Amino acid sequence: MQKSKYHFNPESLSFDAVRLSLRTKLVRGLTYFFASGVIAVVYYIGYSFFFDTPVERGLKRENALLSLQFEMLSGKFDQIEKVIVDLEQRDENIYRTIFEADPIPSSIRNAGMGGVSRYDELESLTNPKIVKASFKKLENLSKRVYIQSVSYDELVKLAKTKEEMLMSVPAIQPVRNKDLKHVASPFGIRIHPFYKVLKMHTGMDFTAPSGTEVFATGNGQIIKVEQGQRGYGNVVMVDHGFGFKTLYAHLSSISVRTGQRVKRGDVVGRVGNSGMSMAPHLHYEVLKNDTPINPINFYFNDLTPEEYDRLIELAANSGQSLD
């Protein structure tokens, strides 16, 4: 039961009960209500400042778990990158070397890396640095994997033509061993037989009797047939593809025509003494991308190690060319 309040009346010398008006009661009620609300808000703010709500604790645990997962993902990206780097190195230093393919320029392998950031929309996330770093690594790896995939597709095509290349590369002597008297002059600086000055000798001279058969040293197509009494005299040139060409000079006769396809071991002419030649011999050249290279490195298909060593010894003992 609600207690009544009394007020002393000095006139009647008695205590009269206090009766509140409706307005007073309403004002007091609203005052209590708002005061309680303010106190509740203060308590709520204070509690929230020092203590997490269950929802906040759940979100923090979730963020911590996501951060851990991104760090683990970043570690896996690093492992994958090491594998890709290994594949790229094998591609450049082994596979493309075997198939004589040009290396992939670094400008292509690293194309599109860096530049203007495309991850600004991620700045609104809780941990934008971790997320952006992961996305950048993923994009980097995706591009490098794609480029490596294209490279391997190219190597597969090269592998399919490897047999053709092996048959086309000059790989035998142009004159049989039994017909070979000696190597008159190897590749390099030699004394010119007519001018008696040091001059670059861009091929090898094989001394053999006139009429000795001269063989194509690899599969290819005849691209040059010339007959003359000056310079190299009667000449045949074969294009083997894959950047290789061979030249056969000072022939006594020619057995092929321009445009004809030949296989390794086919007769292209016979040893002679045409042009500026001191004695019957074959001047033989190997060209790679139209640059003369030492033919002595291209007799691996029909010489034993002992025969190859003998050939090198014969070549080393000559100081003058025959043309």
Automatic annotation (TrEMBL):
Residues 199-295 form the M23ase beta-sheet core domain. It comes from the Bacteria. GO terms for molecular function: metalloendopeptidase activity. The chain crosses the membrane at residues 29-50. Keywords: Membrane, Transmembrane, Transmembrane helix. This is Peptidase family M23. InterPro entries: Cell_wall_metabolism_enzyme, Dup_hybrid_motif, M23ase_b-sheet_dom. It comes from Williamwhitmania taraxaci.
